[in-house]
Amino acid sequence: MRITKRSEEFVDFLKGALRPGMRALVALHDNPDPDCIAAGLCMSKILTAAYGVPCVIAYGGILGRAENRQMAASCGIPLVRAGTIKKEEFDFIVTVDSQPGAGNTFVDGRRTVNAVIDHHRRLPTTRAIPWVDIRLKYGATGTITLEYVLAHKLDLTAKEATALFYALKSETQDLGRESGAADRRAYFFLFSQVDFKLLYEIVYAELSRDYFRALHHGLQHARIYNDALVTSLDEIDTPDSVAEAADRLLRLKGIKWTFVTGRHNDRAYFSIRTSYRDANAGELIQQVAADLGKGGGHEMIAGGRVDLTKIKLDYPQLAEELAARFLRALRKRSAGAELLEPEK
Length: 344
Known about the structure:
By secondary structure, the chain is an alpha/beta fold. Helix content is 38%, strand content 19%.
């Protein structure tokens, strides 16, 4: 697999930045997805195997989606909750698949961050960070960190290769969504090293009753506006549910856009998906979230959240407001919606 010059430069950066006796923290974004987890796994492997630096991989929010929990368990990825650690006890901090100031990470910039590795648009909050590697043409952060592993001449175990392969498969939908040449190289490089029994355990992880209850609610309340579908899952047991539902509903014949909301504890989550490859879902979701919460994403996928304790709207009102903004941005008429499941 080809390794870019930038990835080789990372080796030199770490050699100059790390010292004996250091402790490292790999910070994942809140409610981490497979790509974020796999990127964290790669960074932990590099820091411990290549430099002998003890490392902790931590996340905010919850590890909610069944596949993500199964991935961590089956592949032996040691993850800890951010609330159980003290950031000031670490000498080297790296964030993966997110950036300080993005609003979706427990690393907020008040504590020094040494490195940022991501494939989302760069934020001004990263200007003073020593190492920033953001590759917008990469479909997954895991692809970047895999190059880092290979640049350090480290071999992958079958479990590590399986975790990375599943992450890339999930993030790009088997290279069909927002993937580039580097992702394709990574996908086929990893394929021969995958433990397919483990991969099966991850892809077909058991799902809870709450998952199906939320999905049922979303189907019952789905409204169709020409080629756009809008729905609410109401109460969800994991924030990942909105993104998963948005992906699944986009497969409905004739639908090119989906907008899904859900409530988890005191926060509302929302996701946009589109099959238009030249769309800018990330920009659209910022319009939807404006003055209410935060959001971000790419051309075809985006997500956001709102803290319900900081606004005057309750969840049903907020869900309607967000949906209305989404439809206005797409210039869809909010009147005359067609129900996916007609009333009896």
